[in-house]
């Protein structure tokens, strides 16, 4: 959908608004702010920027004096940084955005507290334990917070935990994780399940309606899927059929949901990019042994151009069909 | 056509700012992520084209002259494709790929020619070439990329001339000038905006990369002499750009502030510039946010917020000052900002009471 600003710019470009009337038109249409808007903006800018720089100043100050602080002081400081945002969450009123941001800050600070714990008691380089414990400890806040950013943080911690677990133990529960391939399967399952659940749950809970969070999960799922396919193409020891079947199903569902049910150009553009990368890689692999290098490179360049152009044409058509 | 477009035109019509019926809707502009996807695809195709030249036309990469000629021919061909067939997606993509490959060949030959000579010549040529491409290439993705590349080359050029400290301020000034005049040349707006975005993104990239560009410059240049300008001059100039932007917006009268309020805003900006003297990235971020808000441009405002966050994160790792000095600079800036807010609220309250009486 064209924004009001884009619409006005298009009218200006078409010469429909005389140059001497542009300033008035911009104010009247609400594209540029009026006096009251400026006051509100300055109020928020000064508050947020002031708070950000003060918070950064505190962090920098303690970082400078970190080694000089005793263990007890280090723990006290890390705990205060968890408790203060929690108090703010409680005082501000749980439904306010500022309160939810405070809860997010508290959840992040739990990570810092765990890092201090690890440093003090020398739990070693067990980053898996840190990330997984972090995710477990903040789960109650994630459940009550009703804030998409908290869920995204929690899912990011789970992703890191899965990667760490696979790299350290090479097995997950009772399944042996012998290769990158299997780690990618786990990441694909985790992110695709989270993505699907989020989409379904957002039909029931209004606070979950958050396009950026869903898109982030889709990107995580898409990257895992594409890497699985690329691994299947270039690694002879990887599975041959299953990744392709999963990829076809993944693309089919993506198309059905975001083209037919609930059009979303971002998702379709991501699907197109994934197809370009996977299809070109397949072409390169199939032709690499039978063709001479120069001809193959020229062919691949033209193939990518053709794929991108086809994607652009299709996405343009879908964009034009979407409700304006 | 949706309801808000209809009502906007109607309200402009009622105010006598436009006449007649609404112009037909032009071509729908692709969202940023579609353009990003096409840009990425363009670069992948360009890499294959370069591999083709390296594998099949080895004589091209063996001679700097041939490489430069091939690069320039590719750029000319790309311009022709992007100009003649701007509506055709396949040709546009091909034009982008050819241009990116041409630029890579050109850069390769340039550094080959100046190999061993520690001079600023390649950076002058590169900055001018990319600036020319940003203005001449009739494609938004290309304009944005070339503006970014020109800014980074410009930084390297000034580094080689011992003036690196003032490079970010100059880039910010050019970008701010372009944004402030966005509505002055409506017919050229679609060409100027990508360039202005590119300049600002380059500033953010410089923040993210931190010392990387400096390392790159030190690798290609030996700097035995000290810088010709003291670093604080660059910080002061960055502050001056912010002051100029705020002054221009206040002078336009869009906010319709009273005289005391205008003076208070200017005093707060000057104070912020002075206390954040050793952290000029704060002024850069604030400047981008203010420009974005003034023109109702959410992407620009988002870029400003990102610039601020990135700057504060990378500021932690800079080695120019100790963490203690940095924390003092940030604390002073925070206090000034919150004090300015408190004063503005008091002034607003006083005005309301006066109006009430």
Oligomer: heterodimer
Which strand-content bin applies to the residues of chain B?
under 5%
Of all chain pairs, the largest interface belongs to: A-B, 88 and 90 residues
The H-and-E topology of chain A, N to C, reads as HHHHHHHEEHHHHH
**How many helices of chain A does DSSP assign?**
12
Rg of chain A: 25 Å
Mean pLDDT of chain B: 82
Mean model confidence by pLDDT of chain A: 86
User: Measured on Cα atoms, how large is the radius of gyration of chain B?
Assistant: 24 Å
- What's the tally of helices of chain B? 15
Structural class of chain B: mainly alpha
Can you characterise this structure?
The complex is a heterodimer of chains A (324) and B (357). Chain A contains 12 helices and 2 strands, in the order αααααααββααααα. In chain A, α6 (127-145) packs antiparallel against α7 (148-169) and α7 runs antiparallel to α8. Chain A is mostly helical. Chain A has a two-stranded antiparallel sheet with strand order 1-2. Chain A has helices spanning 4-13, 22-28, 35-65, 71-92, 97-120, 127-145, 148-169, 180-204, 211-234, 242-261, 265-288, 293-321, and strands spanning 171-172, 175-176. In chain A, a hairpin with a 2-residue loop joins β1 and β2 (175-176). Chain B has 357 residues and is mostly helical. In chain B, 77% of the residues lie in helices and 0% in strands. Chain B has helices at 3-14, 32-56, 58-62, 64-84, 89-113, 121-136, 140-160, 167-180, 189-209, 212-220, 231-252, 259-275, 281-294, 298-315, 323-356. In chain B, α8 (167-180) runs antiparallel to α9 and α13 (281-294) packs antiparallel against α14. The N and C termini of chain B lie far apart (48 Å). The chains are: A mainly alpha (324), B mainly alpha (357).
